[in-house]
Amino acid sequence: MRFVVLTNYESQQVEQKAQLLERQCQQILEQISESGYMHGSESDQVDKLIDQMASLYSGRVILVNSSFCIIKDTYDIDVDKVIISEEVLLTFLGTNSTNYDDENQFLEMTIPITDDENQETDGIMIISVPTQDIANGKAGLSSIVLRMQSILMILILGVAFYVSRILTRPFGKITQSLEDVAGVNDEELSIPDYTETQLLAEAYNRMLKRVKAQEDSRQEFVSNVSHELKTPITSMKVLADSLLAQENVPVELYKEFMTDIAEEVDRENTIISDLLSLVKMDRRSSDVHIEETNINQLIELVLKRLRPIAGTRNIELVLDSFKPVLAEVDETRLTLALSNLIENGIKYNKENGWVHVSLNVDSKYFYVKVEDSGIGIPEESQEHIFERFYRVDKSHSREIGGTGLGLAITRSAVLMHHGAIKVYSKEGEGTTFTVRIPLKYAN
Questions:
Q1: Average pLDDT value for residue range 221-229
Q2: pLDDT at site 229
């Protein structure tokens, strides 16, 4: 506020001083034009008026003729010198110029001198005056505004403190109730004393439900993680104990058991890797590495990596790319998400089946569709497939090495890009996943 007041004051003072100077100069310009001063005629009256003007404002007045030669200088230092500047040229074209230098505290004006008979510009007057009075006034006003601001701030703080005490007094009860609830139990809160407190209580109850749901989800997740990590270890323990309990174990049996143990180790490693990927997906966007990426090339690279897996079951991988697509994405996370979708289409497919991947784009989004000829997903399971550790067919998933985390990772990656993912499936007839992601990443 102080800056605005001082700036407006300075602008108004400069404008008023410029207007006053111009009015007084016009009276002198009339005398100059009538006396022929600009054409070489001498005039003691004009000299006197100019000197008075310069003395009145403690400034400097310069007259420049049509040849850009200085014919009058109240400082008597630049007479007969040539002056050419942008302001001078513009003034000869009939445009007044005003220049205020607040740093050096002076105001300079250039005014055309016009011949009354032919209305042509015979020369210009340049007047420079100090603006110390404006600076002094500004300093005085600044001191006044500062004192007013200080007083106003004290008043505002006092009023705010008083009003806040009045407004927060009714909330003492709800604060105490919240502390009691937090310290003793998790029962829902009800304080209908005021509309405000009732609204707060309702908001608290909604928050409490979300917290309970998150806690239940966390406990279920921990339980699932513990179970999933413990199962391979239990299997390895049983296999190892079986070997240790026998003497002179045949080499064939030893190799068989060690092969099973190696498979369980791989399974454990897969679960841990998927868990780490899921944790990374849950991090804040500060860990996201967004850059413009060629989505066509990204999908082609994913298919290239997965073709050997598809080849073992004679499954055809096809990419339909309608347009070139450039988008701002985290390449690593999007690659992981699409790899999971396409790899699931291969794993849960039939022998000699197919997986079709299509890429399309409009003005705001790009779309990836992954279709397969696989076993499909039962309708009752489709709303759960993105949950962590959820498996439609646990025995089949365990047989092919699934951890139940792939689609959860995919969903997290898509949501991280502010996108959406949907599934369409019919048991025994295949599955289609559609992914929509914005071309421009919004923080």
A1: 56
A2: 60
* CA separation for the pair 419, 359 (Å, rounded): 15
Concatenate the DSSP letters of all residues of 150-200 into one string: HHHHHHHHHHHHHHHHHHHGGGHHHHHHHHHHHHH--PPP--TTSHHHHHH
Cα 338 to Cα 325: distance, rounded to the nearest angstrom: 15
Strands 316-321 and 354-361: parallel
Answer whether 123's CB lies under 8 Å from 63's CB. Answer: yes
CB burial readout 409-429, b (16+ within 10 A) else e: bbbbbbebbebebebebeeee
Q: What number is the average pLDDT over the span 137-158?
A: 83
Alpha-carbon gap, residue 432 to 45, rounded angstroms: 99
Nearest to 371 by CA among 327, 339, 326, 341: 341
Q: Is 114 helix (H, G, I), strand (E, B) or coil?
A: strand
DSSP helix/strand/coil, 426: strand
Q: Could you report the per-residue pLDDT of 296-338, keeping only the tens digit for each?
A: 999 999 898 888 888 888 999 999 988 899 999 988 888 888 9
Which residues, in sequence order, are CB contacts of 115 under 8 Å at separation 6+? Answer: 33, 121, 122
Judge contact between 109 and 29, C-beta under 8 A.
Answer: no
* Residue 197: predicted pLDDT: 64
Q: What is the pLDDT of residues 163-181, one digit of tens each?
A: 777 766 656 656 665 565 4
Query: Encoding tokens for residue 386?
Result: 């993105």
DSSP annotation string for 45-101? HHHHHHHHHHHHTT-EEEEEETTSBEEEETTSSSTT-B---HHHHHHHTT--EEEEE
Measure the CA angle with vertex 436, ends 431 and 438; round to 5°: 165
pLDDT > 90 fraction of the chain, expressed in percent and rounded = 14
Instruction: Give the tokens for residue 249.
Output: 């174990």
